[in-house]
Design a protein that fits this description.
This protein is an alpha/beta fold. It has 3 domains: 95 residues, Translation factors (Elongation Factor Tu (Ef-tu), domain 3); 99 residues, 3-Layer(aba) Sandwich (Rossmann fold), CATH 3.40.50.80; 88 residues, Roll (Ubiquitin-like (UB roll)), CATH 3.10.20. The protein has 8 helices and 18 strands. It has a 6-stranded antiparallel β-sheet. A 5-stranded parallel β-sheet has the order 9-8-7-10-11, with helices on both faces. It has a 5-stranded mixed β-sheet with strand order 13-12-18-14-16, with helices on one face.
């Protein structure tokens, strides 16, 4: 007698269900009606702004000041805050506010040109003073906590959220600013008391030695390239066990404890494999290069899409419990099993 209850039977049953699903929702005559797009609606401050000034701050770095279209005050913000910028091309990216929080007439952002980066190229090459943009925010996922003292460590364009923090901390804070060379480091003229460590003059910074200079109980803020953040996380609590470490990255987080899985894009039937060290977003972008995304860290929600089949290993900081039953943030979350079917 054939065993119909073992693993092989279960796999055959799952395969049959997936085949039936694809026939109905992807290739069948009713697919256009059953798999309609369902865009996510977002709340928040959506503001039309104009570019007031455009300044070259360093090699491949420009700053833009943004004023409310038609005049008027902008929402208040605190050091560490960012805004979502919606570009004319349809791209959306997040940029730290690096101006003066007391100045409600204008925001300032700074953008480094990223090789192959569509958004940074648009901001550098296509936009001019007087052009209009839409922004959302401000929001803050990198808040400045109250502490007896502060050590701020910035690497390259990581100076942007750190700059207003260092100003707010005043005499309680010390700023260390590293970069490839002085010509690549924006805002040097605004931080005369900072310790400046260009790689071509001082070599690669010794993070352990820098952290050793923090006072006991200090709040340590680090923003820069991934190796700098990783070094801070390795060394911090050995150097200063009573202190606190706060980090922000401008790139995707590395995948931890990942395993390979499959994705089916329901609207076309395209199947993709997601590597163990690859994000679902990276895999989807191979088939859909223009799929929406922004922060790549699981909190902005711009890469949220519907899940039509399969269980999700949620690793984001945004979705509610009710939403997690049928949504995923592609930049950080993964399949809990072997396969996901997405509403894409």
């Amino acid at each position: 007698m054939t065993d119909t209850t073992g693993p092989a039977a279960g796999l055959r049953l799952l395969g049959g269900v997936m085949d039936a699903y694809l026939k109905v929702f992807v290739s069948g005559p009713a697919a256009p009606l059953l798999s309609r797009p369902n865009p996510v609606r977002r709340s928040g401050f959506d503001i039309d702004v104009g570019i007031g000034t455009r300044t070259r701050e360093a090699d491949d770095v420009v700053s833009l000041t943004l004023r409310r279209a038609g005049g008027g005050s902008l929402p208040e913000w605190r050091p560490g805050a960012h805004v979502d910028v919606f570009l004319p091309s349809g791209l959306r990216r997040q940029y730290s506010l690096c101006g003066d929080p007391a100045d409600r007439d204008r925001y300032r952002i700074a953008v480094r040109r990223i090789p192959g980066g569509s958004a940074s190229a648009e901001l550098h090459d296509a936009l001019r003073v007087g052009d209009r943009l839409r922004i959302r925010g401000p929001r803050n996922a990198f808040t400045l906590v109250d502490a007896p003292s502060y050590l701020f460590v910035a690497g390259g364009i990581g100076i942007t959220p750190i700059l207003p923090m260092a100003r707010a901390a005043g005499a309680r804070g010390r700023l260390v600013y590293a970069g490839r060379s002085r010509s690549t480091m924006p805002f040097l003229d605004e931080i005369p008391s900072a310790r400046i460590l260009p790689d071509d003059e001082c070599g690669t910074p010794d993070m352990a030695a820098l952290l050793d200079t923090a006072e006991p109980g200090a709040a340590v803020y680090v923003c820069g390239p991934p190796p700098m953040l990783a070094a801070a996380q390795r060394c911090m609590f050995e150097s200063n066990p009573t202190g606190s470490l706060h980090t922000e990255r401008f790139s995707a987080r590395p995948v931890v404890d990942g395993r390979e899985f499959g994705i089916t894009l329901a609207r076309t039937g395209t199947t993709l494999r997601v590597g163990a060290e690859e994000t679902a977003l990276a895999a989807v972008r191979r088939a859909l290069p223009n799929v929406a995304y922004s922060c790549q860290q699981g909190f902005c929600g711009f890469c949220e899409v519907g899940v039509l089949a399969g269980a999700v290993d949620h690793r984001d900081r945004l979705l509610t419990e009710s939403a997690r039953a049928q949504r995923i943030l592609l930049c950080v979350s993964r399949a809990a099993g072997d396969q996901l079917v997405l509403d894409l």
